Amino acid sequence: MDVNELFTRLLDERQLTPDLRREITCIFGDRGRKALKAIEEHRIKKYRDFFIVVGTSDEYVVEDEFCTCPDYLYRGGSCWHVLAVRIASLTGDYEEYDLWYQDGWNAGPPADKQYLS
Q1: Which residues lie closer than 8 Å to 65 by C-beta, 6 or more apart?
Q2: DSSP symbols for 82-108
Q3: Rg for the chain (alpha carbons), in Å?
Q4: DSSP letters of 24-69?
Q5: Residue 108, exposed/middle/buried by CB under 10 A (0-12, 13-18, 19+)?
Q6: Residue 116 lies in a domain
Q7: Span 74-112, pLDDT tens digits
């Protein structure tokens, strides 16, 4: 099975069957295993503005084929966070929040602006 067939089947079946899990691991290797683990552990969050993937050391913004993780930014190409969102968005395996992601930030007190005077 090639990548396009895999995503077509995910769209049609709307669930991660054992066969599809094997195909994901076969096609994507370690990235596929990490993506599946994040989905199983409910670490994919959909906000009004974009998806968030809770990684092992931080939360990463994923929008379309872009991710804010160091792997994506510095090495280029697709990371496991993008793959996890792509799979989760086809199967519905994500937590949905009816709010903007930045509304959840704890910004703390405003910064001292005296240096601007």
Answers
A1: 78, 82
A2: HHHHHHHHHHT-SEE-SS-GGGG----
A3: 17
A4: HHHHHTHHHHHHHHHHHTT-EEE-SS-EEEE-SSSEEEEETTEE-S
A5: exposed
A6: no
A7: 877 789 999 999 999 999 999 998 888 877 665 455 545
CA-to-CA distance for 37 and 112, rounded, in angstroms?
Answer: 42
For tokens 């295993």, the residue is 33
* Domain range for 89: 3-101
106 within domain boundaries:
no
Sign of the alpha-carbon torsion through 24, 26, 32, 37 = positive
Cα 37 from Cα 21, distance rounded (Å): 11
Residue 77 inside a domain? The answer is yes
Instruction: Give the predicted TM-score (pTM) of the model.
Output: 0.81
Listed residue (89, 84, 101, 87) closest to 50, CA to CA: 101
Domains of the chain: total? 1
Asked, for residue 115, whether it belongs to a domain, the answer is no
